[in-house]
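hey so i finaly got around to running the thing on N-acetylmuramoyl-L-alanine amidase from Lysinibacillus irui. pasting the sequence first so u can double check i didnt mess up the copy paste, my clipboard has been acting weird all day
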Amino acid sequence: MRTKILHSIMIFILMVTIAMPNKNFVQKASADTSDLKVAGTILHLREGPGLSYPIITTLEEGDPLSSIGREGDWIQVKTGNYEGWVASWLTAPTNAKQALDKTVIAQVDRLNIRTEPDISSAVLGQLSTGNQANLIEENSEWAKIDWNGQTGWVSKDYVTINDNPKKETEPKEDAVEVTTTTTPVNKDTTFTILVDVLNVRKKPDLNTKKVGTVTKGQAFKVMAQEHNWVQIQYNDKKTGWVYSFYGTFSNKVKSTSKTSSSKELESVTIIYNGTNLRTDASTDAEVVERVDAGINYPIVGVKNDFYEIQLDDEKTAFVANWVVTTSSNKATIPQKDKEEPRKKGTLNGLTIVVDAGHGGNDHGTTGQRGTEEKGITLKTATLLASKLSAAGANVVMTRESDEYVALRKRVSIAHQYEADAFISLHYDATDDSSINGFTSYYMNSNQKGLAEAIHDGLSGKLELRDRGTQQGNYLVLRENRQKAVLIELGFLSNSSEERVITTAKFREQATLGIYQGILNYFNKQEE
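ok and heres what it spat out for the 3d tokens, dont ask me to read them lol
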């Protein structure tokens, strides 16, 4: 009997042991669930989603994290025996992709770099026109980039993506980059402060000693970068670290051209693939070469709206100023050529201001499907500008990125440039979601002819309901001395129409119609 009882006890203990989870197995399973890792040198785990919450513990680069929730740009995670919140911009996926062998070149100024591929996510920094970054990955609308050690997303609508050129030789110093967390940078890179006052610290850490302050607008030579920190040279060649979110990077390009001028010449950076280099300062001149975005050339001189640039083989060529950015990134005012008469069928000698409606904190209307007016007006304006420029016009855009421009400033730009035409682009909305169609507006009598010509051009290209040409008491028309037209290219408040007018095909047809209308109007003026 006793033997039977002992046997039963042994069987029971064995079954319990089998049923109990193995501690090592549980830890391993838990470790396998980590989907993030610490990307910064240090990362504070906090009690809540924000910098104001107390610090639970400090994590180090590479520590595994398991995400369990999210609130805005903060992620709730588990790590070891702790649970708390971390800033998403200081983490990376455990399966993070390496940079591709491609370069992203910004086509507009102040292009936002965001934490996520979403216009509502936080802005990490900005690219200037012509800035180049390494491509990490891309989807249909966004590109993930590495910009001077900073990782984020930019809209593909405002960049050119090229394969990296093959290098004949690689500097030996590249081999040691993997052994340090500090990233060397181009010796000509500068960092410009974008906030009123920014602390300079001894090390790339908010907890280290403050060694000084810098102020908005100051630019400093960049010595190195470590994740979201940048080391700058300031105050009699002292160095210190500042948070890179509060400034912007730029690169100075030195001219190699020979000139008798004592003033150092600027250089240009090509911002569009397939840009034509010509034998003379005219769109009718012979094309000597087609080049891609990202290439730099020293400026030798300026003629009309073209830069004369120095080629590698000591020859020179001309490139239009609307397809490049200069090293100083200063806006240039195109001078109208009054001496050479315009040829019929071209827009040579004409200055046209293209106004992308809304921008910045002025979102315009929002469609039923979530489309923001400010975004598609800019896309449409950029496409129209390229067509007008190709026809020989001097094109001035009231904005080239997501920025707020006051209405009166838009009008003053037309006056400043003595514009031959001012075209303001918008998309409509109303409380009645059944209303649809496109409309062209004018206010003053000298604007009516241009409005009618543009509307005729649109009616031949668009399949939307034609709402005609009407008088509209809009400030950009009412206060404008120049020939000005405001175009509403369909209703975002109509979900069916929104689906049509937000496509690339529609923008192509609409801008083609506007271009044709402008061309027809000025051709008639020559008769």
